[in-house]
Design goal:
single chain, mainly beta, 11% helix, globular
């Protein structure tokens, strides 16, 4: 044996990579790649299965500059359209059909909501005399191809409006809940996944509309309500004092009332809209029939944290303001390009905040336009509800 080989300093030392560093690197990968690595070794499998890694991966996925919308285009099949907002113009593609993307039972075509990569489906079966005989839920993670067994629910009754469903997460206990806001009443029904029983919680301060604009943010469900207002036909007769933002905490199951932004001081000709951008509650409205204004609540629940995010004049809007479809709904925001994407049933538009400029986008060419308005935001994740 040579003297060099006998030198202990020449003995190769195994490369050691801390588990924390491995987890950090893996959190940047898409779900499909992560799941493949789970089969490589027990060490990788333990890292990927750890709840802290699942949460870290989810946070990274949520920060990507792309929007995924999901909706049914035909019976039993779910269609995804992915909008990569980091590209200019945005790139759109549909995920290829896969046998796993066909649900196990016929009839699962109502999407009750989307949260942390999980989709919640609702189904209600009727008898020949139109009596509800069975109500059920189904949870599905398209990224991991995990589908729950049918969750039979009792005590919810007949559903009048799918728009009044919301699926969300109670961050304090990491449990998932499904809520139903009964139209024209203050009653709220909630189901915690795991016990599968609908129950009543604290009543809302204001009666619900038949189609609610619900925004899920950090363990809360938020919506804009108008006191003593139940119909679009008497909208012009309301006053500014009637508007209120109601927030339902999924942990305490109690309601809080928030005031609209201070600059919202006159009733617009169309109802304002609530949305979530960059983990902040946003309030969009039309100002004096001259501008579109978006406010952002920098610190949730703090009235003084409302900040004007965008104000653009009608002269720069590329729409016929006399059209019934004039209202633009805020769809998403690309932080990389400082660009907001808006949509109505006629077309889509992009607003670049840096140059205060608008342009039309053909991002829905060949796609059912209602997908954008009725679809649900979706982020790829490793999350499961139990």
């Amino acid at each position: 044996m040579s003297p060099q080989s006998e030198d202990p300093h020449n003995v190769p030392v195994p490369l050691y990579i801390p588990g924390e560093l491995i987890a950090d690197v893996l959190s940047f990968l898409p779900v499909k790649s992560v799941l493949r690595l789970r089969c490589v070794s027990k060490t990788l499998s333990c890292i990927i299965s750890d709840p802290s890694f699942v949460k870290s991966h989810l946070n990274r996925s949520a920060r990507k500059d792309e929007l995924k919308l999901v909706n049914f285009l035909e019976w039993k099949k779910v269609s995804f359209s992915v909008f990569r907002m980091s590209e200019n113009p945005p790139i759109i593609f549909n995920l290829p059909e896969d046998s796993y993307y066909t649900l196990k039972e016929n009839g699962w075509f109502n999407i009750a909501g989307s949260c942390n990569g999980l989709l919640c489906f609702y189904d209600q079966r009727y008898s020949y005399n139109s009596t509800v005989v069975e109500t059920g839920l189904l949870i599905w993670n398209p990224a991991t191809r995990t589908i729950s067994e049918k969750i039979c629910c009792s005590g919810i009754g007949s559903i009048e409006s799918l728009a009044n469903f919301m699926f969300g997460c109670d961050n304090s206990t990491n449990t998932y809940k499904v809520l139903y806001f009964i139209p024209y009443k203050k009653q709220v029904r909630v189901l915690t996944l795991g016990n599968n029983v609908w129950r009543n919680i604290e009543k809302s301060p204001v009666k619900h509309c038949s189609s609610m604009n619900l925004a899920h943010l950090s363990g809360t469900v938020n919506w804009l309500a108008i006191r003593k207002h139940y119909s679009t036909y008497d909208y012009k007769n309301i006053t500014i004092e009637q508007f209120v933002i109601i927030s339902l905490d999924l942990g305490t199951e109690t309601h809080t009332q928030l005031r609209p932004p201070p600059g919202f001081n006159e009733v617009p000709f169309v109802e304002p809209h609530l949305s979530v951008l960059m983990d902040c509650l946003c309030f969009s409205h039309y100002f004096k029939k001259t501008h579109l204004v978006i406010w952002q609540m920098k610190e949730f629940g703090v009235q003084e944290s409302w900040s004007q995010f965008l104000k653009i004049s009608y002269d720069k809007l590329l729409l016929d303001r006399h059209s019934v479809y004039f209202q633009l709904l805020l769809l998403c925001y690309s932080e990389k390009n400082d660009t907001l994407i808006f949509m109505n049933y006629l077309e889509s538009q992009a607003i670049n905040r840096r140059y205060n400029r608008m342009e039309r986008l053909n991002i829905v060419e060949g796609i059912d336009r209602s997908l954008l308005l009725s679809g649900h935001d979706h982020v790829e994740s490793l999350v499961w509800y139990c």
